[in-house]
Structures are given as structure tokens and as C-alpha cells.
Amino acid sequence: MQIQWYPGHMAKARRLLAESLRLVDVVVELADARAPLASQNPDFDDLFQDKPRVYLLNKADLADEETTRRWTAYFRKRGFAAIPFSASTGKGQAQAVRAIEQAAKPVVERYLQKGVKKTVRAMVVGIPNVGKSSFINRLKGSASAKAGDRPGVTRGKQWIVLTPYLELLDTPGLLWPKLDDQQAALRLAYLGAIREEIMDLQRLSASLLGQLCRLRPEAVAQRYRIQDLGAEEDSLLEMACRGRGWLQKGGLPDLERGAQIVLDEFRGGKLGRISLESPEEEEHGPEGERAGAPAENDAH
Ligand SMILES: Nc1nc2c(ncn2[C@@H]2O[C@H](COP(=O)(O)OP(=O)(O)OP(=O)(O)O)[C@@H](O)[C@H]2O)c(=O)[nH]1
Ligand SMILES: [Mg+2]
Predict the structure, then answer these.
(1) What pTM does this model have?
(2) 3-state SS class at 149
(3) Residues of the chain scoring pLDDT < 50
(4) What pLDDT is recorded for position 282?
(5) Where are the beta strands (DSSP E) in 158-258?
(6) What is d(CA 203, CA 296) in angstroms, rounded to the nearest whole number?
């Protein structure tokens, strides 16, 4: 299954982001804590160039805590601080606001020297469905920006005034024109960043089950009552349907319904907190990763 999703509204969104750049002091970039690399838009370096950037690993409440800790160490080692955040629980909120203020400090001070107290404007960017609007709502303390559990909810830009001195710009989720790395594209699809209508959901959910069998065999065995965790990907969805009783009238597995439920349950954290990527895998390749194994050494 080849995954590509770069519809017209996204190309338009890219232009909108580029145009908005001159209005903002800071770019707040959200990635998904469960796959911090796959969910980073490689176009952003080009697009935002020298603008001060704050990195948040959102949905940290759904990611494995220990793996997220190692990811923050990984990024710190490479010279930038990535703050674990959860728009759902509010964890990381104070650090996020502090990081925005810190990133804006040079420009604020320049204005102060001229006797002006500047309003900091920060643009919130990231892939679709990563939680940009939810992040803004969390900081604002109210549902000011429209959020939803599918990609492509925000279509235009919207300014949200947090305080007289801090404004946030909500923007549409942005992917990149060619998803070269199809492993990463699959992760994006598992996370819900790609529009479902363009994919074969049964194949997607079977492949997610295969991945989960490697990452969290016990959780899969328990939740879907699958005994043979080493089975071919193609048969895993069928086994899950039988295990959970998702059957059609004649007793055949209801693969369509099962596919949707498996994806929704993973996205909703029903199998526990699971990270799809680890820094060790990034540094040593998939072979270097021992699924579910704790980190031996933080300095990896
Ligand atoms: N568990 C959890 N869910 C979150 C978090 N942040 C956002 N969500 C959920 O993720 C889904 C997408 O959130 P949005 O805020 O609409 O995402 P967005 O990045 O604005 O999406 P687009 O506008 O479509 O690009 C919603 O169902 C949110 O409730 C989080 O930190 N934890
Ligand atoms: Mg949005």
C-alpha cells in the first residue's frame, strides 16, 4: 500500500504558513510523542529558516513514558529542547509557555529598549491531527479553536488572544508532497494524520496489529484474544475479529468494522501507552531495537 496525501488545501496551507511568517515572532512546532521523527515535517526547516522554534511532543499521555524521556534526551543531545506535552491533561503547559517566552525574549527586549511592551505572536504548526488546536485550547482554557478526531479539521488560520502580550495562530495541518519513507508514512497513518478515505483500512489495521504484536504482545493477546502472535499480518485482523466477536450474520469476520475499531482503539490509547519509534531504533536501525525492552543507558 502506497500512502500519499497532499491535497490542494495543504498546498494552500503551505503558502498561508509562509505568508504568515513575517507576522510571528516564534514558531511552535508540534510532533506526536509516539513517533517524534515520522511526525516531524521535513519541509519546516526550509519554511521557517531562522525563526525561533519551540518543539513540543504532544499526546505524551499516549506514549510510553520512558521512551519519551529518552527522546527528550536524544533531542537535547542534538541541541534542541523538545518538551513532552499533553493537550488532554495539560501536562507540560507551564514549560511550553516558558519556552515560548524564552524564544521571544530577544525581540521583546529589543522593543523594550524603545519603550514598547511587545505582544508576542506565535504560530502553531504541525502535521494533521497532532493536536495544534487542542494545544491552543488548553493554553486558552476554553474551546476557542475547532478541534476534532480526524485530520484536516482546521482549514484556515485563526488568531487566538491568550493575554494582551501573547497571541497564538492556529494553522491547518501540513504534510509534505512526497512521503518517501513509507515506514514513516505508515506510522502517520496509524496515528491518524492521513485521511482514512484514501487508504485500505483493513490492510492498515492488519499492519498495525503486526506492529503491536512486536511492541506489546501481551496487550494484543489480551485485548484481541489472539493466540498466535507470530501469524502473518494478513490473518491478524481476522483473528482479532473472531476474538472479539466482530462477526457478520453468517459468522464471517466483519473485517471492515474490525479494522476501524482496531485503529480507533490504538489511537485512543486502549492498549496502553505505546511509542512507535525509539531513539535506539533511529540510531541503530530496527534490528537494534528490542521491542518493549527498557533503556539500558540514557546516554544512547
Ligand atoms: N490523548 C490525547 N489526545 C489529544 C491530545 N491533543 C489532541 N488530542 C486529540 O487529537 C485529535 C486532534 O486534535 P486537534 O487539536 O483537532 O488536532 P489539529 O492538529 O488541530 O488537527 P488539524 O486541524 O486537523 O490539522 C482530537 O481528537 C483531540 O482530542 C493529547 O495531548 N492527548
Ligand atoms: Mg486544528
Answers:
(1) 0.93
(2) coil
(3) 288-300
(4) 83
(5) 158-163, 166-170
(6) 34
Pocket lining: 151 vs ligand 1, CB cutoff 6 Å? yes
Q: By three-state DSSP, how is residue 75 classified?
A: helix
Instruction: Give the per-residue pLDDT at 295.
Output: 37
Residues with Cβ within 8 Å of residue 261, at least 6 apart in sequence = 244, 246
Q: Is 132 helix (H, G, I), strand (E, B) or coil?
A: helix
The domains found in the chain, sorted by start residue, are: 14-170 (3.40.50.300), 200-283 (1.10.1580.10)
Indicate whether residue 275 lines ligand 1 (CB < 6 A): no
Pocket of ligand 1 contains residue 58 by CB under 6 Å: yes
Structure confidence at residue 287 (pLDDT): 53
Could you give the dihedral angle defined by the CA atoms of residues 127, 131, 135 and 141, in that order, rounded to the nearest 10 degrees?
A: 150
Ligand 1 pocket test target in 62, 134, 139, 267 with most atoms within 8 Å of CB: 134
Distance between Cα 203 and ligand 2 center (Å): 27
Shortest-distance ligand to the CA of residue 266: 1
Positive or negative CA dihedral for 157, 158, 160, 166? positive
| Cα–Cα dist 250/101, whole Å | 61
Q: Which residue has the cell 475547532?
A: 146
- The answer to whether the CB of 173 is under 6 A from ligand 1 is yes
Measured from the CB, is residue 153 less than 6 Å from ligand 1? Answer: yes
Report how far residue 223's alpha carbon sits from residue 51's, in angstroms, rounded to the nearest whole number: 45
